[in-house]
Design a protein that fits this description.
The radius of gyration is 19 Å and the shape is globular. The chain is built from eleven helices and no strands. By secondary structure, it is an all-alpha fold.
Length: 248
C-alpha cells in the first residue's frame, strides 16, 4: 500500500476499524476464490481509506496479516497477499475472531458447494440486475466527467469501453441463465470477463500517474472513486451467484 498516512499504529484499534478491515478481508477472499487476486493492495487501500484514514500503511498491512492468522486458526482460507502474522494482541484476537465468525460470507467460503436448485437462477438474475444498474450509473458518471473535465481522452475512452464490455457480459449471462439448462462454459467465460474489471478498478483507484485518474477520479470526481468501491461487492455477488446457478 503505497500511500503513506501520518498516524502510527500505537493507538488502540476501534471496533469500527477492525470490522471494516474484516469486511474488506473477506471481500478480497471471495475475489481470490474466483481466481482473481490481482491488484489487492490498491483495492484494499481504497476500500479501507475512509475508516482507516488515520492509520499508516504498515499498520494496515500488519492488521490484514493478523486477520490471516485468525482466519487460519478458524480453519478458513487466507489471503495469499497477506501471510499470517501470529502476534495478535490478546484483546484484539477475540474481537477479530468474533467478527470473522459473524461474517456469513466467511462461513460460506468453508461450506461445501450446494446442489443447484430452482432458486439459484432467480438469485443470480437479481444479482446481475443490481450489478448492471451500478455499472450503468458508473458509466454515465465516467462519461460525463470525460466530456466535462480535463482528463486524457484516451484514458477516458478506455474506461468507458471496459464498462460497456462488462454490460455486454452481464446481458449474455442473463440470457444464458434464463435457459432451463445454462451452458457452464459460457457462464464461466463471461464471469471471468467480469472479474477483469478488477484490473480496471485497481488502476483507477490505485494508480495516480495518468491525467484521467488524477483529474477525474481522485480530484475532480471523488464520487466516481466512491462508486467504484461500491460496485465491488455487487460484482463478486453476481459472479458467485452466476457460477452457482450454472452448477459450477
Amino acid at each position: 500500500m503505497a500511500k503513506q498516512r501520518s498516524n502510527s499504529s500505537s493507538s488502540a484499534w476501534t471496533d469500527e476499524e477492525l470490522r471494516r478491515s474484516v469486511e474488506v478481508y473477506v471481500l478480497l477472499l471471495r475475489f481470490q476464490q474466483q481466481g482473481s487476486d490481482e491488484r489487492f493492495e490498491p483495492l484494499a487501500q481504497a476500500l479501507l481509506a475512509g475508516v482507516l484514514a488515520q492509520r499508516n500503511d504498515a499498520a494496515i498491512r500488519y492488521r490484514m496479516r493478523n486477520i490471516s492468522a485468525v482466519a487460519q486458526e478458524l480453519g478458513g482460507p487466507i489471503l495469499r497477499a497477506f501471510s499470517p502474522a501470529q502476534s495478535v494482541g490478546r484483546l484484539v484476537r477475540p474481537r477479530i475472531k468474533a467478527m470473522l465468525v459473524g461474517e456469513p460470507s466467511f462461513a460460506r467460503l468453508n461450506a461445501p458447494p450446494a446442489n443447484r436448485d430452482q432458486g439459484d437462477s432467480a438469485a443470480a438474475l437479481h444479482a446481475l440486475r443490481i450489478l448492471r444498474e451500478q455499472i450503468e450509473e458508473l458509466e454515465r458518471e465516467v462519461s460525463w466527467r470525460g466530456h466535462n473535465g480535463p482528463p486524457d481522452q484516451d484514458q477516458a475512452d478506455e474506461g468507458r469501453k471496459d464498462l460497456q464490455s462488462a454490460l455486454v457480459d452481464i446481458k449474455a449471462l442473463e440470457d444464458e441463465l434464463g435457459k432451463p439448462v445454462p451452458d457452464v462454459k459460457i457462464v464461466e467465460r463471461r464471469s471471468k470477463n467480469l472479474l477483469g474489471l478488477l484490473s480496471t478498478f485497481g488502476k483507477w483507484i490505485g494508480a495516480r500517474t495518468t491525467k484521467f485518474i488524477d483529474a477525474t477520479l481522485l480530484a475532480a470526481a471523488p464520487l466516481v472513486a466512491a462508486k467504484v468501491t461500491g460496485v465491488l461487492p455487487a460484482l463478486i455477488n453476481a459472479v458467485e451467484a452466476a457460477t452457482k446457478a450454472a452448477g459450477h
